[in-house]
Fold this protein.
Amino acid sequence: MALPKPSASDLKIKTTERGMLRVYFKGEPLPGVIGIECIQDDLTRPAEVRVTFSGRAVALDIEGA
């Protein structure tokens, strides 16, 4: 399995002109995002990114139901 590359990712985080972060999927802004956190404890490892959504913005489906 090949490692993913940021340049080929469908999920992108961009900075707005006002300095805020926005999350985009395939070029479209994701609604319901209430938090974005980027953590990089060690410069030898890639950063970890956490995106927090409002519960109203997410549908939990049960596979096979």
About this structure: DSSP finds no helices and five strands in the chain. The mean pLDDT is 87.
